[in-house]
Amino acid sequence: MAMAFGGQGLSHQGHRPVLLRETIELLAAERGGLFVDCTVGLGGHSEAILQASSDAQVLGIDRDEEALGLARERLAQYGSRFRSVHADFRELTRVLATAEVGRVRGVLADLGVSSLQVDSPLRGFSFRHDAPLDMRMDVTSGETAAQLLGRLSEVDLARIIFEYGEERRARRIARWIVERRESGEQIQTTRDLASLVERAVGPDKKRRIHPATRTFQALRIAVNGELEDLDSFLAQAVDYLEPDGRLAVISFHSLEDRIVKRTLLKLSGRCQCPPRFPQCVCGAVSVVEILTKRPIAPTDEEIEDNPRARSAKLRAARKLSDEN
Ligand SMILES: C[S@@+](CC[C@H](N)C(=O)[O-])C[C@H]1O[C@@H](n2cnc3c(N)ncnc32)[C@H](O)[C@@H]1O
Known about the structure:
Strand order of the largest sheet: 3-2-1-4-5-7-6
Structural class: alpha/beta
Bound molecules: S-adenosylmethionine
Number of helices: 13
Shape: globular
Helix content: 25-40%
Strand content: 5-15%
Distance between the termini: 48 Å
Largest sheet: 7 strands, mixed
Order of helices and strands: HEHEHEHEHHHHHHHEHEHE
């Protein structure tokens, strides 16, 4: 039975790993060996890797201790084939050195938030529950969303909301946030922010999404630095792959996918310098072969079954042998 946390009855039940079959195939998990799941979350992908071969082992990383607890509970039946580490995957080299891991058969990163985080009534990721505006994946470190809203300038707030949320009315929202701050009132809870944004921009005439959806997404990305050092993480992951080892990355945001696409192209040897540069300065060297010319998207059936999968994109690469 799944473990309950803090009396909220949270579990991995009901959580559906995205693009599961496609990911396991691209990782060639049936060959067994050691895999690193850099975003173990509720352990869905990790479990599928462990089930693909009785010889497979997984080292699971997550910066969310609550998720790791649930994953450990779920995967206890696999004994020492599953190990876990509470860490940020951008420190992959340090984590693997500490765990005394050499080269690995595969690395997986299923980016973004888990359903545990979004559905939690306490963590402040969603305006569906009134909660302190926290949004940190790792509640043991960093600034909360409320602290960020209290500190950033109007220009920076507008930039973040526009860039990370693709919100057209970002400047107006940023102005309302700063005016609220200047009136001496802090924005402390999810409902405070949701109602401020609603009043700043008015209802969405097409009523497709709540008017605060994009602002919440932008803040979450900023609080967790989700786009920072993604390229260096991917390079570290490729470094640790054995020849013919696989890297699979699932992203949920166009900015994230763009970084993954460009970094994999660079690691495949494709120069990323602007065309006007007389010679290459980006240092592209061919260390992988890209396995997904176009990103793999969920089928209509998967989206119907799991609407959260709708923006997912899966890209994968294979490490070339050292002689290449
Ligand atoms: C989409 S969920 C993964 C779900 C998982 N594949 C499953 O099947 O249950 C993403 C997870 O990655 C974690 N995460 C996001 N960024 C991270 C980072 N930089 N370092 C470590 N974990 C991270 C989040 O805390 C979250 O639990």
